[in-house]
Amino acid sequence: MAWLEMGKDAYSAAAGLQDHPRSRISRAYYAAYSLVSDELSMVRGVSFPVGRHGPSHAEVPNLIGNHLKAKLHQGDIKDLKAAMRRLYFARLEADYEPYQKLGAEEARKAILDARLVLAKFGAL
Question: In the CATH scheme, what is the code of domain 3-120?
Answer without folding.
Answer: 1.20.120.330
